[in-house]
């Protein structure tokens, strides 16, 4: 099988490339700025894509914000003649970016990927997010992208990961972003008080679990055509459980969560106020809501169950971060 993966340098995209190549497929990894494709184990060997599909992973530089992904007409023609499946994982996932960035990459980028898939009659596997309620610009853009997928008329599957974190077995992750940035500020005591509720829930899903589900959807596309499959952690963890776990680590600070309706940022120290304004406020909806997800459709299709969930998985993530020095 020939598979094209956008966002191949990202956390999920790289793991998907590794799995598909290991299964014997010809994978074309589409990247933007990065010249390498690396999963949590290290760099994945690639060769330049010159227009011919070959076993393993080949790489091609693209720009999803441009029609035809910025590719020359000859390369577009070769991709479209390849009888490919297209996995669309390219997205800006960082919070706090300007809405124009989300629109260009997450929304119009999806439209351009769909146009390529339509031209090549490619089955389309779209990597979205479980958090499509629209609490911030990122979520709103992913919701808009899903609407494009559903309105495209193409054969498509939507995969909805929750908060993507390190692997089940070791907690390893290639890049510390989003959740990890907030985690570091908290346990290092740089934000002692945060707006949040102790019964709020965080759904943490291992990156390998997400990639396994995406790869399975590629392999068995006909079984899930037209479906939406949440990729979630199995059991969310409450902020109370997070605080109790942090207290087990002598070097960690234990945060105080203050109900949002009484929290006052102007009472923070100048340093903590800067961290609040730059980072914490972006994650406030995640710290106050008891959001949970139903994944019966995923469980019926994808029989691999999480090997570790909830507090046990979070502990593994923390241990990994300590072992490599990200946390102290």
Automatic annotation (TrEMBL):
Q: Which Pfam families match?
A: NAD_binding_4
Q: Where is the Thioester reductase (TE) domain?
A: 5-135
Database matches in InterPro entries: ComplexI_NDUFA9_subunit, FAR_NAD-bd, NAD(P)-bd_dom_sf
Please provide, alphabetically and separated by semicolons, the GO molecular function terms listed in this UniProt record. protein-containing complex binding
Q: Which domain of life is it from?
A: Bacteria
Name this protein carries in UniProt: Male sterility protein
Q: Which organism is it from?
A: Kutzneria buriramensis
């Amino acid at each position: 099988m020939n598979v094209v993966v956008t966002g191949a340098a990202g956390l999920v995209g790289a793991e998907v490339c590794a799995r598909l190549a290991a299964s014997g497929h010809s994978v074309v990894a589409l990247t933007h700025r990065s010249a390498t494709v690396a999963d949590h184990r290290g760099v994945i060997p690639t060769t330049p894509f010159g227009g011919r599909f070959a076993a393993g992973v080949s790489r091609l530089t693209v720009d999803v914000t441009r029609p035809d992904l910025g590719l020359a007409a000859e390369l577009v023609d070769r991709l479209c003649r390849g009888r490919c499946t297209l996995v669309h994982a390219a997205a800006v996932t960082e919070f706090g970016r300007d809405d124009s960035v989300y629109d260009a990459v997450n929304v119009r980028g999806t439209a351009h990927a769909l146009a390529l898939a339509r031209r090549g009659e490619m089955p389309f596997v779209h990597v979205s997010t479980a958090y499509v309620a629209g609490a911030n610009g990122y979520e709103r853009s992913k919701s808009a992208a899903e609407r494009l997928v559903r309105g495209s008329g193409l054969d498509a599957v939507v995969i909805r990961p929750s908060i993507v974190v390190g692997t089940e077995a070791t907690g390893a992750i290639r890049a510390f972003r989003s959740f990890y940035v907030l985690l570091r500020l908290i346990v290092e005591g740089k934000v002692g008080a945060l707006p949040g509720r102790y019964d709020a829930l965080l759904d943490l899903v291992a990156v390998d679990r997400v990639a396994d589900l995406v790869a399975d959807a590629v392999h068995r596309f006909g079984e899930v055509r037209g479906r939406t499959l949440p990729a979630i952690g199995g059991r969310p963890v409450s902020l109370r459980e997070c605080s109790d776990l942090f207290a087990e680590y002598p070097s960690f600070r234990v945060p105080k969560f203050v109900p949002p309706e009484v929290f006052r940022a102007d009472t923070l120290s100048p340093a903590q106020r800067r961290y609040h304004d730059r980072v914490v406020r972006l994650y406030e909806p995640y710290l106050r809501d008891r959001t949970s997800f139903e994944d019966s459709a995923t469980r019926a299709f994808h029989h691999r169950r999480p090997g570790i969930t909830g507090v046990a998985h979070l502990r593994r993530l923390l241990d990994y971060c300590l072992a490599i020095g990200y946390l102290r």
